[in-house]
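Hi L.,

You mentioned the student needs an example of a multi-chain input paired with its predicted structure. This one should do, with 1000 residues in total across all chains.
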Amino acid sequence: MYDFKYQKAASVADAAKVIGADGEAKLVAGGMTLIPTLKQRLAKPSALIDLGGIAELKGIRREGNAIVIGAMTKHVDVANSPEVKSAIPALAELASHIGDPAVRNRGTIGGSIANNDPAADYPSAVVALNATVITNKRKIAADDFFKALFETALGSDEIVTAVSFPIPEKAAYMKFPNPASRYAIVGTFVAKTGGNVRVGVTGAGPCVFRWKEAEAALGKSWNGDALKNLSVKADGLNSDIHASSEYRAHLIGVMARRAVAKAG
Amino acid sequence: MSAIGQPISRTDGSLKVTGRARYTGDIRVSGAVHAALVQSTIASGRIASIDTSAAEEAGVLGVFSYRNLPRMNPTPKPWSHLHPHGQGYLPLQDDKIHYAGQPIAMVVASKLDQAVQAATLIKVHYEVAQPVVFDADTTRAAIDPPQFLWPVASSVGDADKGIAAAAVKIAETYATPDRHHNQMEPHATTAMWDADGSLTLYDTTQHLYGARELIAMVLGIPVDKITIMCEFLGGGFGGKAYVWPHTLLAILAAKAVRRPVRLQLTRAQMYSMVGHQAATIQTIALGADNGGKLTGIRHESISPAPVFDNYIEYAALSSRSLWAASGGIATNHKIVHVNRNTPTAMRSPHEALGHFALESAMDELAYATGIDPIELRLVNDTATDPHSGRPFSTRAMRKCLIEGAARFGWESRSPTPRSMREGRHLISEGTAAEIYTHWRWPAKARVTINGDGSALVETGSHDLGTGTYTVMRQVAADTLGVAPEKVTVRLGDTRLPPSHASIGSATMANAGASVLLAAESARDKAIRLALTGRDAPFTRGQGADIRVAEGTLTLAHSNVSISYGDLLARNGLPNLVAEADYDPVPEHEGPKAIFSFSAVFAEVRVDPELGIVRLNRFVGAYDAGRIINPKTARSQAIGGIIWGVGQVLLEQSETDPTLGRFLNRNYSGYLVPTNADIPELDILFVGDFDEEASPLGAKGLGELTAVSVAPAIANAVFHATGKRIRRLPISLEKLM
Ligand SMILES: Cc1cc2nc3c(=O)[nH]c(=O)nc-3n(C[C@H](O)[C@H](O)[C@H](O)COP(=O)(O)OP(=O)(O)OC[C@H]3O[C@@H](n4cnc5c(N)ncnc54)[C@H](O)[C@@H]3O)c2cc1C
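Structure written out for the whole complex:
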């Protein structure tokens, strides 16, 4: 780890001011991704601005037909939240299977989506539920938020403050976890909201994506069998020692069918 | 009651679970300083330049490279397994790079983080050569290696003729991948020199005396000036039997900086600083008549070795002796020199690789002939070792197959692949048999009977986590006629009577025999005292008339008795000491062929959509001779089965094909089974006392239990899916 300054931000505005002024400063949320990166000397920020003390970033509330989750809400709190469990049980379940207990007790939803790891779980839910990412500057639609490998629409002094998830009629998430980290080798989130079907796929490609053929098929008939004849091309998908791109392509279909069955 | 045969719990169990057992890395020597290594990032070439100046200026005690590390004596040629007990290429002696991760520099500093930091300041420029890796191309240039264990090739009868004339033939190629031991405990060494030139080492070793011999040889130190200690080992599995470069480096560093030096490998370093199991490519041809009787076996194997040593994975070894083949049996081994460090024994070396091929091929033969796999093996059972022509000392193969099958419920199996289902899962059953080498090695031990009726066993054997402390206590307790709690066992120190390497599942039978003989000798000394010593209590009779139990000697048909304590006091002796030198003829020179045997049975559940194989249940029936402690023996079996599950389903050290380095150098990339992967395991011991194997009647067990897990599960996978996987591990995608 290289040396850095540490500062606890009092408010979102305060944090935005610091990172706006110092391009080398970095926000830290749960630190579950950022700290290991620092340890491996893959990043050399001048300062860490800790979002942990900002009350306005925490908490889960229902707003009309949506569940709004503050950026600094930990995975464990989403997993255990009565509001989330009753309104979007698939989201609570997703959170309950992120990493291990240590990761769930530190990691946050804001950190997860801002980081946009290709194998992270939340991005699939954000995309499939057509959530809105709320920042200190604007509201960003899910489809516009995740750009590429570890890349989002966030500007350099932009801070995620919350994510608003419309409550679906049906939803479920199935993941094939990495045997060690539990990150998604492939995770498929299926959701039907206001009659619209969306399928978010994580782990398979460089960035979360929607499987539009599956959405169309499920839109006609909400049934796993509707996907039987669909397949995803392996070209451009991730490949590593745990799974080739061909196997990942195959997994997308299996996980999607199982998710539809689970959603009921 | 006899202690032998009782399921006694580990005597060191509470030390271990309370964290009081001192493993090598835990030992803090006052004034010790720390070494950190710099390893080659290329796999082949030479060091063009190395700049250590920044590291030297970082307030460290010493910086070493080939330019300033003292020269060592070369290891003897030809390279052999038993001499010199280690990698032939010695560290920091020249500018050559033979493998990725080769140590090329070392920093010693007062604090570990200081040493690690300074090591990052060393700048190396390489002249890079294209590394040779083990692949389809390079195997074509395989060579015939010199022998280092068993003969490299064998031929009995005319295997090819037997196969050519057969009604049913199987000819297939099987492959096993590179694997690493991944012991929980990393290799560690602390080296200290005394003013008089004597060297004391705490070292993670399963071969104290081999380590001492090699260190003496290459560093030019008299053997009697070297003391090595290893009280507890956190897993060896063969990987701690050789002396690896870091141990030599720690010793030389300690000499140079005149302080004790501690060097512990990181998890990633354990992928290149110490040995591994080399991959094999094996071809098997079987011929059989329509009744399944084998008419010929040909088994050949190719494996990689480093450019500087001729290590052989003897994968075809077991095919020499497992089954009879009327026409003949031929085997051969070749190696390919590639850029990697020296492989080494890994549970269960040779056998667990070869059995995957042979016992998979036997399953293929069972399907080709339509004969039940158990029946097929019964048909080919033999009382004579086909290789040496000697009768087996004991061979309970039939019992293993029949009793194991009954326990498993084999007869309800439907033989057709894909015929058994449970929901979306395919259910299936597979079996395999095994044979495992038995070693007869010399060992010494000392037993002391103390005035308070307690006893001390001392032998330079090791406890790898296998239970040596416990079983030696049982052997001595029974022989001396004292309660097991009265016996203390000391192991793991070269100042004790020398024993053999704790490899080859040989400890119970051989080190155990030396303890048995020393205890018998101590007891006999006591009996002689009771008959002829001062105020001898027994005025008539002879040795055979005297029984010892509960620490008391009693004359037969009398009520005259005396405790060990009283006997010693009466003779004015503080204790009675006896030593034994167990020096058996080597197995291959004996009149009988000695092997352990087993038959194992696996039920698996396959998710056909995902290719996931899960073990549902497992039965193992083992003939390891007489079982000294059913509890520690069962633990060995459980560990062996889990080890085999790793081999067949998960483990694979991946090599970068262009850079020639191992890639997945930690537990997140190198998968081993966890508790969630393992169901209830059912263990049966069906063997009897084998007097040829050991005066204790015991044969080797530990490695036997890991031998045929892979083919049993692979055969079950075929039964489930109709897919024959001939290349391990059976990873998900191979079933798609
Ligand atoms: C062993 C292990 C296993 C894991 N397994 C999984 C898994 O199974 N599934 C999964 O999805 N994830 C997994 N993770 C990742 C985990 O969920 C992290 O919590 C998450 O990726 C980052 O969240 P964080 O709060 O720790 O963010 P940090 O590490 O603190 O920050 C990550 C990045 O986001 C930025 N950032 C943080 N908060 C904000 C914000 N509000 N606005 C703008 N930028 C922000 C930071 O500047 C930094 O660049 C695992 C992590 C580990 C260490």
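You could point out the following to them. The domain at 31-130+184-235+240-271 of chain B is CATH 3.30.365.10 (Aldehyde Oxidoreductase; domain 4). Residues A 26-34, 51, 71, 98-99, 103, 106-108, 110-112, 114-115, 117, 120-122, 154, 159-160, 181-183 surround flavin-adenine dinucleotide (CB under 6 Å).

Best wishes,
N.
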